[in-house]
Specification:
One of its GO terms (cellular component) is cytoplasm. Pathway: Amino-acid biosynthesis; L-histidine biosynthesis; L-histidine from 5-phospho-alpha-D-ribose 1-diphosphate: step 5/9. By secondary structure, the protein is α/β, with parallel strands linked by helices. It has a single domain, classed as 3-Layer(aba) Sandwich (Rossmann fold). The protein is 25% helix and 32% strand. It has 6 helices and 13 strands. The strands form 3 sheets. It has a 7-stranded mixed β-sheet with strand order 2-1-3-4-13-12-11, with helices on both faces. A 4-stranded mixed β-sheet has the order 6-5-7-10, covered by helices on one side. It has a two-stranded antiparallel sheet with strand order 8-9.
């Protein structure tokens, strides 16, 4: 079934730490009505909010807070309004980041720590496959051997969030491996995120963004 992306307004949140133009172009190709902004009301009222991120965890958090992005993400999620994080924009959704021995607070939407990759070669730069769970909406229509583009030196190696209420849908967690397995994507109600860059992942990334937009 083809997903309809017509007239879906998506804001790429511009807080100074993301490849906003690449994200804008990829979302537009996927059929969204896209705007790059840090305007509070526009970000709050969009059908979907995309939070990019590149660089250091602590610097991204500082920039996000300065733009009131932490408050926007929290209030959107409290109202069940979709948010998607990419790369460091995913990492800051966790409780903390540890870089060079220094711990920084994240948004704490999910428990867990972003820590250095445990691999012989760092950063993890290039194409890699992922292991998506059954029933994933984010990876719907994609082959199991689809490859996505990663650029990162840190990741979450342990997923600790548990769902004890049977009425609640358990988060769907996708994994990839570079040295040790790490969290590559999460689907958790209105909050989705990817460690890789869908906007740099060719046809597979375009399908993934189309899948997200189709749920808005």
């Amino acid at each position: 079934m083809e997903l309809s992306t017509a007239s879906k307004k998506v804001v790429v949140f511009d807080y100074g730490f993301g490849n906003v133009r690449s994200a804008e172009r990829a979302l537009a190709r996927a059929g969204a009505d896209v705007e790059i902004t840090r305007d509070f009301d526009t970000a709050m009222n969009a059908d979907g909010l995309l939070v990019p991120g590149v660089g250091a965890f602590a610097a991204c958090m500082k920039g996000l807070r300065a733009a009131r992005g932490d408050w926007i993400v929290d209030r959107r999620l409290a109202g069940g309004r979709p948010v998607m994080g990419i790369c460091v924009g995913m990492q800051i959704l966790f409780a903390r980041g540890i870089e060079h021995g220094v711990e920084s607070e994240g948004l704490d939407e999910w428990p867990g720590s972003v820590e250095p990759l445990q691999a012989d070669i760092v950063p993890h730069m290039g194409w890699n496959t992922v292991d998506a769970p059954a029933g994933s909406e984010l990876f719907a229509g994609l082959d199991a051997d689809a490859r996505f583009y990663f650029v990162h030196s840190y990741a979450v190696h342990d997923w600790t969030l548990q769902t004890h209420n049977a009425a609640m849908r358990a988060p769907k967690v996708t994994w990839s491996t570079h040295g040790k397995p790490f969290v590559a994507a999460v689907e958790n109600g209105a909050l989705w995120a990817t460690q890789f860059h869908p906007e740099k992942s060719g046809d597979a990334g375009a399908q993934l963004l189309t899948n997200w937009i189709g749920t808005l």
